[in-house]
Structures are given as structure tokens and as C-alpha cells.
Structure of GST C-terminal domain-containing protein:
Amino acid sequence: MSLSIYKLQTFLNSAVGVGGAKQQRPFCLLQLSFKHTIPMARSALDEMSATGAFVRTPSTFRNLISRDPNSPFPAEAERYHLYISYACPWASRCLAYLMIKGLDKCISFTSVKPKWERTKEADEHMGWVFPASSSEEAGADPDPFNGAKSARELYEIASTNYSGKYTVPVLWDKKLNTIVNNESSEIIRMLNTEFNHLAENPELDLYPSHLQDQINEINGWIYDDINNGVYKCGFAKKQEPYNEAVKKLYEALDKAEEILNKQRYLCGGTVTEADVRLFVTLIRFDEVYAVHFKCNKKLLREYPNLFNYTKDIFQIPGVSSTVNMEHIKKHYYGSHPSINPFGIIPQGPDIDYSSPHDRARFSK
């Protein structure tokens, strides 16, 4: 039994009782998966099908934090830490939730360096690494709790048998010294509801019950064709998968443009989870995806509604602090040598997303 599992078992035994009446106290015990033996891709660049198409593998740590104090992972102040990369859109949407919900005082976070580097001397794996000091890379800091040199080390602390990708975000439990969850779509749901007693903006509900069906439907095509769609374009190794991905990408962007011609946000007059999920791709589109991932059929700036909408979301208090364009460009142009072998970073277009937008016309 690993140390992390031993700590968790001791915690659960004390919480629910072993061999006594307390065992019957109802609480939600989620399956805690700290052992992983199925071989998986080591980075996104390895996730290829036989047809040359990019196929993203699922996240593997899927435990949930709950407001229930009897849960294995209760929502407590200063217990959890979020490891992110400003470059990664999946991690950035978690950081956006942390900031707009006002949870940054009770859940700390650390960013890795933007450019992938060797994670171990023993092999050739390239991935997210921490700087040696806070002065090494602006915006990135050393791991403050485990002294890990890379995100890979965090996964190895949590599970000695882990063989999957070493991705961010990582939601870390400082008490049990393990990973709670590394699936961004689940992390943002937890941040939306489970910490409201600690949040500065508890009234902000980005996944309200009356809009959940609509949000889920929109999330489906935005994820498949836009969020993940740009990666399908960029990582395709054959022409046909690229052609198919580009077609679906621009059909989805056209669809979003049409929706936003009639209302301020994707689900109406209120910002929701769907908007945050779309925003993290749009903010990277002209700066990176149009060039690096060959998504150049039409720029974001050529979509009047989407472009102004992106500025609108960027200007929500807290969101702009989650966008570090220097990290974004350093990562994409510097971490994929099969796409950009010389690592040259384009100078433009340097869009000012803090400039005025026209979306307030829908509030009249």
C-alpha cells in the first residue's frame, strides 16, 4: 500500500468508523483511483489513430470535492492547490473559475513554465516543469509543497504505478498529499458549487439548473469541434483528418457567430460555463491556432460577434489575469518540434482585448 493510499484509508477509517455503528452513517464514497496500469499516451503528441487523426485520451484522476464534511474530499479552506499552465486552455478555464468565483484566497495555485522540457534524465519525456526559482520565468513558480521538479513528479507521488499523461490542471489535496482530479470539466463544476461558503462571489452560478440542458448541448459541439477541434487540425498527420477537422471547426465557429448575433452570451443574457469553455480557445485563436495549427481559413477578428464577445469575456473581473499571452505563445511555438522545428515565435498580432466592445447593446 502506497503512503498516499495509507493516509486516505486512515482518514476514511476515522471518518466513518471501522467495525462500529458509525459505518452506517450515509455519505458519498467515490471510487478513489490511485493505481493506474493501463499504458497511455505520454503527451498530446502521442495521441494518434492509425488514420493519422488526433484522438485525445481521457483524464484518469476523477475524484470529487464535496461540501459534505463527511466526504473523502470535503471543501475546506487552504486544503487544496491548483497546478496550472497559463498556456494550457484546459487549465486556464479552471483558473478563470478560481478568479471569477473569488476562490483564490482559499485555493492557492502555481503555474509551471510554458515550454516543455525534459522531466527526467532517465528518459526522453518532454512535459511541464517547474522553475528552480520564481525569478527564472515570469509567471511561473517552484512547487511550494512537494518540491516537485515537474508535473510528472506530482503524478508519481500520487501513484507509483501511473503510466498515463502528465497533464495540467492538477487539483492537489495538501492534506492527503495526492491528486484529487485532473479533469478540467469536473474541476470547474466543483469550483462553481462546492466552495460557495468560502467564495467571494457565491451568488455567481455558471451552471444554473434551468440552463443545464442547454449548456450541456452547447458544450458538446464546442468541445468536439472547437476546443478539441483546433488540436485535431494542428496534430493531424494526414490531409483527410485535417480537412475534416477544419470543416467542423469552421461550421462550429459559424454557428457560434450566429448565436451571438442575437444575444450577449451563448445561453442568453447571462454568462455561463459554456462561455468560459469557448473563451479559452478563442483567446488563443489568432495568436496561435491560426498559424501553428493551420486554422487560417478565417481569423477570429473576421467574426464581428465572436471577436467582440471574446473581449467582453476577457473584461469580466478576474479573467484578464488568467491570460498570459507570452506563456501561451512560448508553449505552443516552442513545445511541438514536429510542427515548428526551429521554435520561432511569431511577433504578432498582439490584439488588445481590453479595447471597447459592442456586446452591451444586448443589455438595453
